Automatic annotation (TrEMBL):
Keywords: ATP-binding, Nucleotide-binding
Keyword RNA-binding (UniProt): no
Tagged with keyword Transmembrane: no
Organism expressing this protein natively: Brugia timori
Molecular function per GO: ATP binding; ATP hydrolysis activity; polyubiquitin modification-dependent protein binding
GO cellular component labels: cytosol; nucleus; VCP-NPL4-UFD1 AAA ATPase complex
Protein name per its UniProtKB record: AAA_lid_3 domain-containing protein
Amino acid composition bias (Polar residues), ranges on this chain: 155-166
Domain Spastin/Vps4 C-terminal stretches: 106-137
Segments for region (Disordered): 143-179
Record InterPro entries: AAA_ATPase_domain, AAA_lid_3, P-loop_NTPase, Spast_Vps4_C
Domain called AAA ATPase AAA+ lid: residue spans: 42-83
GO biological process: autophagosome maturation; mitotic spindle disassembly; retrograde protein transport, ER to cytosol
C-alpha cells in the first residue's frame, strides 16, 4: 500500500492508530454535534449511541447533519403551507390577526433521526479495521520496538550523568569547568 522508502526512520516513522469510538464516546460525539440544536425530549441519544457500533465520528456527524436538514426541510414546508393558507384567507376576505405570525423553530424529532438512520452507513468495514491493525503490527516489528538498549558498565564511567569519575575527574578542580 505504502512505499517502504516512505516508512524509513525520520519520515513517516510514527503510526497513530485511533480506534473507532466506543459507546460512551459515540454519545459524546452526538452531544457535541447537537449541542446548539433543539432536540425533542423523546429523542434518546443513548439509544442512538448503542445502535451505532462500528460507526466513526464522521459517520455519526453525518447522521446528525442529515437529521438536522430533514427538520429544516419540514419547517420550511410548514411555513410555505402557512403562507398559502394566509393568502387563501385574504382572498376570502377574512381578517388576519397579528397572532398569525408563524415562526417555528425546527426541532429534531425521533422521526428525523429514524429517517437519517435509513441512509446511515459505516465508512470503516471490519476488513479495513483488520488491515489497519495488521499494518500497525507490521510497522512495530520493522522498527524493532521493545529492544533493551543499554550502555555497557565500564571502569571510569559514572552512573550519574555529568559526573566524571576516574583519573581525569579525581581532585583536579582547576580544570573542571562545571564545578
Amino acid at each position: 500500500i505504502i512505499d517502504s522508502a516512505i516508512l524509513r526512520p525520520g519520515r513517516l516513522d510514527q503510526l497513530i492508530y485511533i480506534p473507532l469510538p466506543d459507546e460512551a464516546s459515540r454519545l459524546q460525539i452526538f452531544k457535541a454535534n447537537l449541542r446548539k440544536t433543539p432536540i425533542a425530549t423523546d429523542v434518546d441519544l443513548t439509544y442512538l449511541a448503542k445502535t451505532t457500533v462500528g460507526f466513526s465520528g464522521a459517520d455519526l456527524t453525518e447522521i446528525c447533519q442529515r437529521a438536522c436538514k430533514l427538520a429544516i426541510r419540514e419547517s420550511i414546508e410548514k411555513e410555505i403551507r402557512h403562507e398559502k393558507e394566509k393568502q387563501e384567507r385574504r382572498a376570502r376576505g377574512e381578517e388576519l390577526m397579528d397572532d398569525d405570525v408563524y415562526d417555528p423553530v425546527p426541532e429534531i424529532t425521533r422521526a428525523h433521526f429514524e429517517e437519517a438512520m435509513k441512509f446511515a452507513r459505516r465508512s470503516v468495514s471490519d476488513n479495513d479495521i483488520r488491515k489497519y491493525e495488521m499494518f500497525a503490527q507490521t510497522l512495530q516489528q520493522q522498527r524493532g520496538f521493545g529492544t533493551n538498549f543499554k550502555f555497557p558498565n565500564q571502569a571510569g564511567v559514572s552512573s550519574n550523568p555529568g559526573q566524571p569519575t576516574g583519573p581525569s575527574g579525581a581532585g583536579n578542580d582547576d580544570d573542571d569547568l562545571y564545578s
